[in-house]
Amino acid sequence: MRTEKTPAAGPSSAGLPSDEEIARRVRSGETMLFEVLMRRHNQRLYRTIRSLLKEEAEIEDVMQQAYIQAFTHLDQFEGGAQFSTWLTRIALNEALQRLRQRHRWVAIDGGDIVAQEDGMKLLQRSEPSPEQQAFGRELARLLETTVDELPELYRTVFMLREVERMSTSEAAEVLSVSEDVVKKRLHRAKNFIRERLDAHLGGTLAEAFSFHASRCDRVVKAVLARLPLDPG
Description:
The protein has a single domain, classed as RNA polymerase sigma factor, region 2, helix turn helix motif (Rna Polymerase Sigma Factor, Chain: A), CATH 1.10.1740.10. 57% of the residues lie in helices and 0% in strands. It has helices at residues 19-27, 34-50, 56-72, 83-101, 130-134, 136-148, 152-163, 168-175, 179-197, 213-226. Helix 3 packs across helix 4 (83-101), helix 4 crosses helix 8 and helix 7 (152-163) crosses helix 9 (179-197). The longest helix is centred in the middle third of the chain and has 19 residues, at 83-101. It starts with 18 loop residues before the first helix and ends in a 6-residue tail after the last helix. The relative contact order is 0.16.
């Protein structure tokens, strides 16, 4: 099934305008260009929110709300960081707000957390089956299940750094922690899953938590319907 790819922020090899340039043009009145930004970053936002929330309908709802917030406060984007970082942080905050409403989130700033569910079990050692070796998607599903068992704080760092391929500094900025904290949490996340997936932490990660094209279209359409866009 075709998936929606996430181009890197900044000018592309095809000479397309950067995120920052498009954001400037949207602020100047070319509001319909906001759709370009959504399609560029749907995959990243989905993966970021998916690290905290599990229900797919809720994830899409949070994505929509994050885009609404970004559009509404686009004048606050001053270019001090990459647009993708600014947008991802908005999405993360929206997801955290959902968790706070459930009274089950441990503050993200500073220090380690205690696992919120007692008795969390380490993954059992097992070799990939022939079917898993033959079909990359089956391995991606196994990875998704494994990552879901991480404590939330470590799962978010793992998703941003290893799945979404953010730099340490960018992940630290998104999470409002130091780079050392990001490195420590990522190390612990990797230790948690290494026994089962150490041999597969490379290219197959890109196939995990994919945001398929049909869902991309649905989210974009829903957001566009809620924004005060000028067709001109």
